[in-house]
Design brief:
With about 280 residues, the chain is α/β, with parallel strands linked by helices. The protein has two domains: about 170 residues, Rossmann fold (3-Layer(aba) Sandwich); about 90 residues, ProC C-terminal domain-like (ProC C-terminal domain-like fold, Orthogonal Bundle). Helix content is about 55%, strand content about 15%. (2S)-3,4-dihydro-2H-pyrrole-2-carboxylic acid binds next to helix 7.
Length: about 280
């Protein structure tokens, strides 16, 4: 249902209300955004109802209803369905000329602009799920059709959920995706492995969970608050001939750095493949 034109600039529509949209919406509302000015289109009843219940945002089953009257359209669907979703909204985009923000891995601003009918103002954003806690980080790239006000609007929307970093070369957005978009999963994998190892050493499961999670939280806070590069922080834990040195030597012998580089290269490549597969 159309809404008054006076709300146009302030209203944000999300197309897709899954995991990442939920993190962004939750982060925005927690930091004072008006829930009534956030509209979400999501086909899954349970997800839609949970968004309305938990955050007070307006929800719709149909994307056309969500974008009506919105000045910013955030595309938060999977890369594989992005083309169909954009093409379904192209006629409306031609009339409304919204700022389009896509958070999809791989999909380029050229693809998005073409699918939305051409000459669309598109910001490609890559957030991550800690956005829900206001502790996210988002890489941003704007195409040439985005003016200064559009850049400001995109940065303001995403900065409600954490830090933002503008990326000048769009080709690097696949590396951003591989480092920080996917990155929380790498930390969760490390947490799983540390918990498994703690239990293997005989620690009870609840003690293992507390020891691991608080260690990761404390280390992450030191990384952000101590003003020292990670290598320096690591050296100050590592007593010569002590326990940490024994562990670090095992990590290095096992090729941890090479493994991390390979994992990030694989994720970067997958982003490029997602773009090519959807052309
Ligand atoms: N999860 C993450 O950590 C991050 C994800 N991203 C990107 O965010 C995007 C979404 O990922 P994520 O949230 O994990 O995926 P989800 O599958 O959790 O969410 C996408 C949602 O969009 C729904 N959907 C499908 N078609 C439409 C449509 N036509 N209109 C409205 N909604 C629709 C899906 O429903 P259904 O399931 O029925 O298809 C699904 O509920 C992806 O492009 C991903 O690359 C970016 C950064 C981090
Ligand atoms: O796994 C993915 O493809 C998405 C993009 C970054 C995080 N999740």
């Amino acid at each position: 249902m159309p809404r008054p034109a006076s709300t146009l600039e302030d209203t944000t529509a999300f197309i897709g209300g899954g995991n990442m949209a939920r993190s962004l919406v939750g982060g925005m509302v927690a930091r004072g955004a008006d829930p009534a000015a956030i509209h979400v289109a999501e086909p899954v009843d349970a997800l839609r109802e949970a968004l309305a219940r938990d955050f007070g945002v307006r929800v719709h089953a149909d994307a056309g209803d969500a974008v009506a009257g919105a000045g910013t359209w955030v595309f938060a669907v999977k890369p594989q369905v992005m083309r169909t979703v954009c093409e379904g909204l192209a006629a409306r985009a031609g009339d409304a000329r919204p700022l389009a923000v896509s958070i999809a891995a791989g999909i380029t601003t050229a693809q998005l602009s073409a699918w939305l009918g051409g000459d669309a103002a598109v910001v490609r954003a890559m957030p991550n799920t800690p956005a829900l806690l206001g502790a996210g980080v988002t890489g941003l790239y704007a195409n040439a059709a985005v003016d200064a006000a559009g850049r400001e609007r995109a940065a303001s929307l995403l900065s409600a959920t954490g830090e933002t970093v503008w990326i000048a070369d769009e080709a690097l957005m696949d590396a951003v995706t591989a480092v920080s978009g996917s990155g929380p999963a790498y930390v969760f994998l490390l947490a799983e492995a540390m918990e498994d190892a703690a239990r293997a050493q005989g620690l009870p499961a609840d003690a293992a969970r507390t020891l691991v999670t608080q260690t990761l939280l404390g280390a992450a806070r030191m990384l952000t608050e101590a003003g020292e590069p990670p290598a320096g922080l690591r050296r100050r834990v590592t007593s010569p001939g002590g326990t940490t040195q024994a562990a670090i030597e095992a990590f290095e012998a096992g090729g941890l750095r090479t493994l991390v580089a390979e994992a990030i290269a694989a994720a970067t490549l997958r982003g490029r493949e997602l773009s090519a597969a959807n052309d």
